[in-house]
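sanity check this fold:
=====
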Amino acid sequence: MAVRAKKHLGQHFLRDENIAKKIADTLSLESYTNVLEIGPGMGVLTKYLVEKDLEVIAMELDSESVIYLEQNYPHKNLKIISADFLKFDLSDFFKGKPYAITGNFPYNISTQIVFKTLEWRDQIPEFTGMFQKEVAQRICEKEGSKTYGILSVLVQAFYDAEYLFTVPPSVFNPPPKVDSGVLRLKRKRKFTLSCNEKMLFKVVKTAFQQRRKTLRNSLKVFNLSDKLKEDAIFGQRPEQLSVAEFIMLTQKLENDAISTNNGLS
């Protein structure tokens, strides 16, 4: 089947049926019966999703792909939407019911897709799909690694992340210059935070923007009290902290701010 690459979206079309089926099978189908596929292209993954006992919405921005999907996949459990996921209001998606997200994600917007998923995590118990390999590995990485960073911490604050398998360039049209990686994110049972969420995001981003510095130096913007500066955690670098420790760090900063404002420090 001849297809065209959506170069403006950074999309590479998957043409290997076995890989497509493997991606569809990454969905556990636990606690949901609805799936949103982002960027279905010519439907190589879609065909395996609709075979499952699911309600599938395929969201595609490319108009030619939308026409192709409508003509070739008239399935009763499939709804095709022509829209940009990053600009789409998900508030009434699937009428408030939980749903999973999957897809062969365009490389250049894949991290934005992840961040938007985090915003709507109350409705999204599972997320699977294909990324550039380095991005997939970074999302799943643990502390102590040079690739552990902002994405790793913020995703794993809410989801358990698992790197599943690597996909070579040869199975795409056109072939990318790098390997791809498939991952699965399963939302944690307790996915509410014991700290202020906006502050956690700010702490993590600020810390990793100067990842070679100790937290005592990189987090100066938070106006640390003299007492808090003495805490051993501030002598570490951001890649040394686990997700739980970043949450604890945020709690310390919150408490420090409250004490300082009340004149207690």
